[in-house]
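User: What would this chain look like folded?
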Amino acid sequence: MNELTDPNTVSPITISGEIVGIPVDIGAEFGYEDAEPRLGFGLGLGAIDVGGLVAWLGVAEGLDLTTEKFSAGVVLRGDSLDELARHSEFSAKLAGGHWQIGDPQGEEATRIKIEKGNIGFGPGKPLTFGVNGVMDHTPVSIQTTGAPLIDYIKGDRALPIKFGVDFADVRLDLSGNVTVPIRQGPFDMDLKLRGENLTTFNETLGFDLPPLGPYRVEGRYAADDAGFKLTDSVLVVGESELHGNLDVDTSQTPPRLDVALTTPRLQLNDFNFEGWSAEGGEVVEPKADAVAVEREETIGEDDEPPVKTHSLLSAEALNSVNAKFDLNVNEVLSGEDRIGQGRLTIAIEDGRLTVKPLHMSVPGGSVDLEFGYEPVVDGVELTLKTLVDRFDYGILARRVNPDTKMGGKVFLDVGLNAKAESIGGLMETGRGHFDFALLPVAFDASIFDLWAVNLLSALSKKVDDAPESVINCILARFTLEEGLMQDRVIFMDTTQMSVLGKAEIDFTQHTLGIYVKPEAKRPEFFSVAIPVGVSGKFEDWGLDIGIVPAAWAGVSFVTSPLHVPIRRLFGGDKPLEGEAACRQAWLESEKPPEEPKLPKTKAFQ
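Assistant: Here's the prediction, encoded as structure tokens.
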């Protein structure tokens, strides 16, 4: 006892006992530092429950974290609990093990395989805790900074805390005050999240997300046993800045998600999903062999198998959540083009996806769309209603080629109901109507891969191939029944010709047949207007010129000096051209078919 109280003596001590149920042997030294007792020791352990240790320190409860190797260095200073808490030092290192985040018994828990970690505090320094590991084959780093240890010992009180998470190209920061010991919630903190691309979360969430990014999210994050909310939030993608709230209710099965956003300006170029489809989905392959071997040496050989990512239109995705998404936009931009204002509502309820409505006001017109989609036991069901009035499709052309001079107006009226084994077979079983009209300017068929429009354009060039001739308008109205599309009217107006046509498109056999007959607007000497047809498979069609129509056109060509003067003399009024001609053809076709009975079209009314 004399040696222990002698300030000039350093006494070696061996301590045997338990820490949170783990037997330990500690080598230590006891002495004095500036007349204050000082105990310094180091220990090394195998597997240990770090969550239990953190709970013993009074920092947090419910932390499911274990490590395979644990080593610590401790320096205790002071002759009272208060002195020990203020002046002592502690540092620990972890290696191996796992951290289960979320409900350990639930399917939604996230598991991080630990490569290394650290815990530490010191005189006047905050308590820190960090882990580096692997989640879903992706490296993740979590760092937590709290308050000095003395603040935790003083009992229940709100203390400042910061969380920083790095996950691939994602950075998450949370800061605020929490009451110790920290439990699952409630939390109320400031959130900042930024990342390069949403696809980073594909494997973690199990869904094929769109390639959106770079992005940044900020807001007030609040969580409790019922779920979490993000209020006063801002989402920034490129030049677009969206404001609103997000609410997730996890007390329901499936969870409930509600999102409401508004923005003064939405730049469509910031949301370019080229190459991605909501019908996608892929198997995420594991990392390169060298990386996998390196990690196996650290965390064992129980890596998760590759994860199948489901498309956003899959039954797995649509049944995983009930949701509502509202977006209001004061101004929609596409590059330098100002499109108008719009609103969008998307809902998912009991596995059914609906878009009702998508509305956009454009100069001189509007765009309206309603959409319903549901995976069912034997396939998928779809309903679609679209009404486009005077939309400048030059805006779309400039998204493909910013230098194009292509422009004009498009009118579109579509109604479709279908059920099929897959999305690709919906046209084979669908019924409805498809009506469109184009008033093109500098039409360029290479800009859009729209076979119906491009095919009619190609035919118009065949029937009016004069170098100075242009297409004034293209009109086509079809009915669809059980995969067979038949025309109600096909009409084209070019500089010199008015063209009427007939068509039948069979989506079950992938065949088409289109026949057009030109007629000169003004009788001309030695003019040849030969009917032209196209037939064959979708991917292998050919041009037809019938022998009899061609022969009749030849007779007309030879006899034109006889009949042209008479036709010019008694030809009547000048024929309508451009939009007026297409409008007249549209109105003349406004006789509702007996079967199937379809909604009356509105685009030209």
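Confidence is low (pLDDT under 50) at residues 282-301, 523-528, 545-572, 596-605. If you want, I can go into more detail on any region.
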